Amino acid sequence: MFFPFPVALPIWAIVTGYLVLQLVLIPTASGVAVEAHIGGLIAGVLLAPLVVKLPAPQGKGKMPASAPNLRKLATTTELKSMLKRIEDETVPDVKQAWIDHFVSKARCPQCGAPIIADKGAIRCEKGHLI
User: Fold this and answer.
1) Which domain holds residue 15?
2) Domain-located, residue 105
3) 74: part of which helix (H) or strand (E)?
4) In the chain, which stretches have pLDDT less than 70?
5) C-alpha span between 24 and 39 (Å, rounded)
6) What pLDDT is attached to residue 54?
7) Torsion-angle region of residue 24: left (phi > 0), alpha (psi -120 to 50) or beta?
8) Which of 116, 76, 84, 77 is nearest to 100 (CA)?
9) What is the rounded CA–CA span in Å between residue 85 and residue 9?
10) Which of 1, 47, 102, 113 is the most interior residue, by most CB within 10 Å?
11) In Å, how far are 10, 49, 84, 90, 120 from 74, measured between CA atoms?
12) Are 83 and 67 in contact (CB under 8 A)?
């Protein structure tokens, strides 16, 4: 069904509509596709409460954007521009993406080796802590 404009519906209405649609299609469908979709829906409904309780994954190499260490590494115009975007960004995932990009471009001020963000610490490949 095509709607020429966005339609906001509660999730229970979407799931019910989907289930009714699948049940209507069972007699006309060949194979197991419809039954598989209904099984997936049921499994999702049963497993969702368990999945929601799982702890959020901790990303490797994540660090706070306010780390003063980033300022020490902003030695080029490009890195200074990225640092400004990091400081101004309000969306956490976008901010983290900018931090990851910044770290991939930055170099150790002591030896010039590439930088690694590891468990909140910033160091170079040769081991210098920044």
Assistant:
1) 11-52
2) yes
3) none
4) 1-3, 29-32, 56-69, 118-120, 130
5) 15
6) 80
7) alpha
8) 116
9) 36
10) 102
11) 47, 44, 10, 20, 18
12) no
54 to 40, 47, 49, 50, 58: CA distances (angstroms):
20, 11, 9, 7, 12
Asked whether residue 78 falls in the same domain as residue 47, the answer is no
Give a yes or no: residue 97 inside a domain. yes
pLDDT in tens, 27-54: 776 666 777 878 888 898 899 888 888 8
User: Does residue 84 form part of some domain?
Assistant: yes
Query: Number of structural domains, the chain?
Result: 2
Residue 86 lies in a domain: yes
Would you state the structure tokens that stand for residue 87, as one six-digit string? 């400081």
Cα–Cα separations (whole angstroms), residue 99 to 18, 56, 81, 130: 41, 20, 12, 15
Residues 68, 54: Cα–Cα separation, whole Å:
32
pLDDT at 60: 46
